[in-house]
Amino acid sequence: MNIALVAGSTRGTGRGIAVELGRAGYTVYCTGRSTRAARSEMNRPETIEETAELVTAAGGTGIPVQVDHLDEEQVKALVERIEREQGQLDVLVNDVWGGDALTQWHVPVWEHDLGKGLRMLRLAVDTHIITSHYALPLLVRKPGGLVVEVTDGTKKYNDGHYRLSLFYDQAKTSVTRLAYALSHDLREHGCAAVALSPGFLRSEAMLENFGVTEENWRDWIPGNPTWAVSETPAFAGRAVVALAQDPDKMRWSGQSLDSGSLAQVYGFTDLDGSRPDVWRYIDEVEEGGKKADAADYR
């Protein structure tokens, strides 16, 4: 039996990862703040109970646990419960975010709401560190464990681009560095840590923001070809499963990875059978000037 904790699995990438781990037979602890009884400050309808039910429907065992990952006592209690019920932890996914409504784009730091900016950093970075602090002693009990730090943008992309907000920029680059640092802590235990970025993600919020659905998103391609290389949250989920099941996963430890490039290595596909590779498309076509159809990167 394999056990995973997906911290921040209420929606989006976290939900996609949790469900695909379930499809691979994992018992998945699905944590977040939004439940059917109460919503988080994001005020969205998705819940951890729904995610856990999707995990179970996919073939795994989903266990929803309401946790605020900034609250050390709640995180400690969560890990103690996993240890008590399972006695092991094989995969830790740090996907807590919650900063969407806090970002002020194209606003210099001296004009950005300081409280919102600092809150964003706490949600994006402190949550990951707190969760790792309590969960890793359980994960390192046996070699082969995997920690996945979910971020937005590869190291190559983020190093060369300002992410339109100092706070957002720091949040997303910091998470990549967390994976690098954790890889050093985990090396002697035979466990790996990686940073993983999805591509142009068709999450619940993204579809809603653009006013499209999973059925008609292709209507946006003529006006914005990048939509042609967008992906579902399941694609990143399959990337995590491939990494977790790789006996040679240590070759990736400390690196910045993305779902599209890993699909080329492991051969998994998105739900429609394609392999969207948006970061390569951005690098070669949008910024590199290569004449190519976006469909060639799917």
UniProtKB/TrEMBL annotation:
Signal peptide: none annotated. SUPFAM superfamilies: NAD(P)-binding Rossmann-fold domains (SSF51735). Coiled coil: none annotated. It comes from the Bacteria. NCBIfam families: PRK08303.1. This is SDR family oxidoreductase.
